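Problem 3 from the worked examples.
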Amino acid sequence: MYDVAIIGGGPGGYAAALYAHNFGLSVALIEKDKVGGTCLHRGCIPAKAWLHTADVFTEVAGAADVGVVSSPPVVDWDRARRRKDAVVDQLHSGLNGLMKKRRVDVLAGFGRLAGRGTVDVTAADGAVSRIEAKTVIVATGSVPRAIPGYEIDGDRIVTSDHALDWPQQPQRVAVIGAGAIGAEFASLLADLGSTVHLFEVLDQVVPGVEPGAARVLARALGKKGVQIHTGTAVEPPRVTPTGVVVPFAGESVEVDVVLVAVGRAPVTAGVGLEEAGVGLDRGYVLADRETMLTGAPGVYAVGDIVAGTPQLAHAGFAEGMAAITHIATGVAAPVNYRAIPLVVYTAPEVASVGLTERQARSAGYDVETHDHGIAGVGRAIIKGQTDGLVKIVVQKDGPIVGATVVGPAAGELIHELMYAVGWEALPVEAAAFIHAHPTLAEAVGESLLAASGRSLH
């Protein structure tokens, strides 16, 4: 009998499996595909490899602006795709090595709860084996959502799963959904020369982030040539011999391919959750956020399937660790959801942590905000990337409760503000630390100074 059986080998599942060695727990990790899950094989990692290709292409294309004269760059799509695969394979190999080192038994197959402490594992050939464990963690992840009328065929109408392996660069693309996934694909495709239409039914790109940050990103995407249609619902498409016609608001556009990027749905069907007594809400698992324990004794849930928590790989990591800690010690080690950063890897990047101004006011906080653009920051001018800002949300006479960064390396800069939010730092405390000059991080320092009431520039 194992101490822990984990159903699903994505970020939440494999993090729990690896973390268990700290407590000497025996672990079986059940995965029907490859350890690493969507994030490693069909999400975070391959998408960022493509985004890096777009970044390099853009930098080389503009090299003459900084005095480096070269031939105009050409995208070798197949080579870029092979490099993406090589990055994924390297990380997958390393992860498999860690599983062996930590003595995690990886079982290939589909896991299903079959009774208290019992999991049935169905292999690819249909053979079923049964394992027993004192506790079970369900970490079955998510899949791309579809929308009515847009039947996914993997050719003309696709999800991000397909787009990461396009055999050639599509020249005309409609992206439906301007959340993180849709905005990232729009950014990289436009940088590489594709014509892109970006549709979003809500009133801004990347809904949920600070409106000012969304406006900066929308302007930047517009400069790349992305045609943005916010507040716009698409109508059912018409597939033609040459592409797909997408109707919207009395107009239409014909493209080579439609990328549906309207979010991700939890994978909870067929796992035996309801039969085991696990509560569900629209397919999401109801779990205690202090411990990740569900309503079924000995059954935990982590990652994208958990109701009300962010669908982020690093949130899954943290939840897996929290579940293992509770299993091993009986003591809750809850995830600090308030201080989990969100990063959108567009160019420019958008990153946030804590509450937006709107969220803070809705929650009843009396807040002040302080913005600092990066247009005057020396390092940003040197890099030729001056679209961006830093915004700090501060409880009046209290701590920093949220922050947003837009600009180059925003995904790295946000972690300084993550600590400020997580530790409930007062602006005057955070502003006391000195930022090196010239750096992009000076924009953060300037914002903190302004928030403390003692601005410099």
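Problem 4, a separate protein:
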Amino acid sequence: MIPNDPMILLSYINTKLRDFYPDLDALCDDLEIDRSALVEKLKSIDYEYSKELNRFI
């Protein structure tokens, strides 16, 4: 289960991306997360996914 709080979710997702996944699609597929819902939730706190950096910034 992933964190519900957006700030904790941001830290959790960026850590997973850094340590285990080559991109957001791989993370979402492996953890069975709805990519668009995740992106929208983090966008609500002004973070967007950077493919080049493989993290939300």
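Solution to problem 4. The CA atoms of residues 3 and 9 lie 5 Å apart. The chain is about 55% helix and 5% strand.
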